[in-house]
Each structure stands twice: as C-alpha cells, then as structure tokens.
Write a structure and sequence with these properties.
The chain is α/β, with parallel strands linked by helices. It has 14 helices and 16 strands. 34% of the residues lie in helices and 21% in strands.
Length: 392
Amino acid sequence: MYKIRTMNSIAVAGLRRLPRERYEVASDITAPDAIIVRSADMHAVDIPGSVAAVGRAGAGVNNIPIQKLSDRGVPVFNAPGANANAVKELVAASLLLAARNICGAWDYVRRLEDTGGSLSAAVEAGKKQFVGFELPGRTLGVIGLGAIGVEVANVALSLGMKVVGFDPKITVRRAWQLSSAVQQVDTLDRLFKKSNAVTVHVPLVEATHHLVNRDRLALMPVNGVLINFARGAVVDNDAAIAALDSGHLHAYVCDFPTRELIAHPKVVALPHLGASTTEAEENCAIMVAENVKDYLENGNVKNSVNFPEAIMPRSDAWRVTIANANVPNMVGQISTTLALAGLNIEDLLNKSLGDLAYTIVDLDGPVPDETIEALRGIEGVLALRSVGKPIS
C-alpha cells in the first residue's frame, strides 16, 4: 500500500487516479511515500525521509525546495500545460480589460448615486474619460513560449493582433504548436520595442527576476499594456508604477497584488486567478497524480522539473531504479554489482540532466537485500528503489 500525503485541497478528479486498494491518501500521514501539493510553502517543512516523490498540482514550483530534494534523489513532478487554457483565457480577458478601460468604467458607474435622467446624464458625461482602443493591428509581445505562451500567442492572432515571441529555449513540440504567423525575435529589447502590449510566461529564477524593468519598459511604444500572470517578481513593480505615472504605460494587469499596486488607478490586480478554474485544477491534479503513480509503481519519470525524462515499458521483470550523481562509470558499477549477485539485466535505461542521472534496470529475478545495500553503497548514489514486478 502506497501512502500519499496531500497538502492543500487536491481536486477529487486527480485523487480518483490513485486506486483505494493500493493507495492511502490523507493530509495527516506521517511517513508518506509521496507528497502532492498545490501552493503550500514546503521550504520550512520537515520532509520525511520516506518521501520518494513530490508532485505539484500546477506548473510553478517556487514553493518546493528543489535543490534539497534533488540532493536526496527525490524527483519533483509538476503539471506543465494543464492550466494553459485557463491562463490563456485570462490573458485574453486582460487585453480587453486594459484596452477598453472596463474596470475603471465599471467602478465609475457603481459609484453613481443619480437616478432617472440625472443618471443618464452622468453616464454620458463620464464615458469620455474611458475611451479605449481596439486590438486588431496592435502587437503583443509574448515572453516565454511554453505551453501557456504558445496558446496566448495563437489566441492573440485570432483577435487580429500581430504577435512577436521570445524564447531561446523553445522546444520542438512547442514550435510545432506555435502559429507560423508569430514572429520570433532574438532579444528581449527587440520584443519590447515592437510591442504595444507585453505578457510574461516564464518561471521565477535568478535570470528572470525583474526581467521587466525600467529600461525595457522605456523601449515600449507609448500607451503600452503590461500583463503578468507568471510570478510577481518577474516585474519590477516600482518601474511599472513609474511608467504608469508618466503615462508611458497605459495599464498593468497582474495576478500578484501589493499595497502599492492595489492603490494605483491604472492597475488591475487580481487574487492569483491564473489557474483558478475547475477544469484547470482537475487537469493539474490528474496529471500530477498519474505521474506520481507511474513513478511509485514503475519508476518512470515524466514531467519532472529536476529529473531527466525516463520512461521504459514494463515487462514481467523485477525493476530497480537508481538516482545518482552524474559521474563517469556509474552504470558500469551498477552492472558489476548486479552481475556479482548473479542477476541478468533484461533491459536498462540511463538518462541524465545536469548534475543528476537516473537509471532504470529490469532484471530476471528479485534483488537480494545485500545487493540493495551494495548498490546504495556506491559513491554518488542518492536514492535507490526496488519496485519489483509490475502490479497486475
């Protein structure tokens, strides 16, 4: 029986992927095999040594101590693309909110206390201050062409916009999904110069901290729109407010309220709604539950942020998985240790990602305890799991 600890409320549609006859799922399990989390901050949490995997029911993993878990040989799974449609729709809505000054106009009308003809006069008098602009012909700059960025770029084209994109690490899969009408640029400065509106879809790492700053905002055409549903610190808020105050920036729509942003009349700050749809929450929970399940039962790795993708079909063999430092002769040492135990390797897969490597080995018999300990004793081995034969 596998034990899964949940942190936050995880959509039932995802938990149903963990059969009750094989999984115990609860929020108070003390020695779990895996943890599934949404937004809870795990950096200050004492993660039990029993934990073999962590699953994030969402895309961002800033709330998870990745390096600490990598050093222990524990993969961290997420759900890239599962919330892409939800974020795409919110970005499209944000473009319209900003272009037509909808939030300011709505707030103006809600504050009116007039009635009858006086109300009609106030409405007509007030609308002049909320004159907006239309999207067709304007250019949207999309920073980050992953699952979300590609969908945002494609939908902007359908709204009649021109689109430029920047992502030096775009994958072949995403490139196939991206419309050929999207112009890709090779520098962020070029993107800002060309864009009437800019939307960011990148993780928050050292290289993306304040990626949107004073100098780059100054490159945008006057009356620009900034949209941020990635992470708050990707944008330098002081720079954004200064650009709004000067009139260079027309509006800033974001998912990360601060007291300064909330108080600004040109800012629409939302309560982290990016992936807050029933469908997105279910999609994320299903994807991460399936990935954690496949890892626990078969040792396969898919959609991990710190492990290489490693998927090997199961046969009627005994399986061992090993996470280790990516150093020379590791596979040789593993093979030699297994051979000394009289075990024949039926299949083997070895993948690496940066400083970490992962090996799946299928064998013709069960691995004795002393051989398991010998494998664990190899210098550089971080974690080892014997997942036995396939579950029928």
